[in-house]
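Figure 3 (text version): structure tokens given as input.
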């Protein structure tokens, strides 16, 4: 055996050294694989990312399209903004004309968000025109000529709440295409157009909008529906994501929303050159001085678009509109520091 080592290309001492090194390496590997894990190994691991919740459409056989995703926790980067907004809200509430304010801001590039009084319930008023719009978009996917259908407006229903904020109204005794009625419902916020459209589509299309977006489905005879700012914001989110209907129909809907004629709220807090798609809602109550005024919008700040929803209760709608504008300005300036002071 010694002779054969000497006869090879490696000297004897190198063969012995190689064997020793191989044995040592094998011993180290063996110990690493058999060494029990430390008891605190998992508890010392870095903190995981916040939980992500995914909402998917589940009415297909094999696919489940993603509507949107939500991070459980609000982002700490909004702390200073939240403090400033709370100061403004509390100052306005001290005069007695503002009773309650909720605000939801979501940065659309990364999904981060913040909320103030996020779970208080409000009557959305005319913002409920958005699920009607989504229902018609969904039906139009399979019936391409559907928007050309003509509907007769016989006359106004006394069951509809009185509007104090409306631009134009459709006329009794005239026929309108569904496209014209959708324009009146969204751009002019006409309740008559809204009711006619609501009566002319199968209720399941509307109910599916709520169930698909993970919200409570209203009953047919339900007089009012209460919602939080988080749920209310879902209608614009699925349009922006183009995740509930086609890209072309989502673009059509958001384009209409950029032409909404309400200028008393968020519009007052934004520079004139900023495009935003928005819908407002108002609600008054018989035998009560309480007024609700709300607005939800996608604000197309260059490179940093964001969704903003503000809902208010008070006794002076003009003061509520002014507060919505002021809070919008604060949010916009924070999202776009170069605009601060304008």
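Below: residues designed for each position.
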């Amino acid at each position: 055996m010694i002779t054969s080592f000497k006869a090879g290309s490696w000297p004897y001492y190198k063969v012995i050294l190689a064997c020793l090194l191989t044995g040592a390496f094998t011993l180290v590997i063996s110990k690493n694989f058999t060494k029990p894990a430390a008891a605190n190994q998992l508890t010392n691991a870095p903190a995981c990312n916040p939980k992500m919740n995914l909402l998917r459409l589940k009415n297909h056989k094999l696919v489940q399209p993603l509507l949107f995703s939500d991070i459980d926790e609000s982002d700490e980067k909004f702390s200073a903004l939240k403090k400033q907004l709370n100061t403004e809200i509390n100052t306005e509430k001290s005069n007695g004309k503002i009773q309650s304010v909720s605000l939801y801001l979501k940065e659309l590039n990364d999904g981060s968000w913040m909320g103030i009084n996020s779970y208080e319930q409000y009557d959305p008023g005319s913002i409920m025109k958005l699920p009607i719009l989504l229902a018609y978009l969904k039906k139009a996917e399979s019936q391409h000529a559907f928007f050309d259908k003509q509907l007769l407006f016989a006359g106004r229903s006394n069951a509809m709440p009185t509007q104090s904020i409306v631009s134009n109204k459709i006329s009794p005794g005239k026929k309108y295409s569904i496209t014209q009625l959708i324009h009146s419902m969204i751009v002019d916020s006409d309740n008559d157009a809204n009711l006619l459209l609501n009566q002319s589509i199968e209720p399941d299309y509307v109910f599916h909008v709520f169930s698909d977006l993970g919200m409570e489905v209203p009953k047919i005879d339900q007089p009012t529906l209460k919602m939080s700012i988080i749920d209310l914001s879902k209608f614009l989110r699925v349009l922006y994501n183009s995740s509930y209907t086609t890209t072309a129909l989502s673009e059509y809907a958001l384009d209409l929303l950029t032409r909404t004629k309400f200028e008393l709220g968020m519009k007052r807090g934004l520079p004139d050159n900023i495009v935003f798609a928005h819908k407002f809602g108002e609600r008054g109550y018989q035998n009560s001085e309480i007024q609700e005024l709300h607005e939800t919008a996608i604000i197309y700040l260059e490179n940093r678009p964001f969704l903003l929803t503000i809902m208010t209760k008070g006794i002076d709608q003009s003061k509520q509109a002014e507060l919505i504008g002021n809070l919008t300005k604060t949010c916009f300036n924070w999202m776009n520091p170069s605009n601060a002071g304008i």
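Residues 1-46 have pLDDT under 50 and may be disordered.
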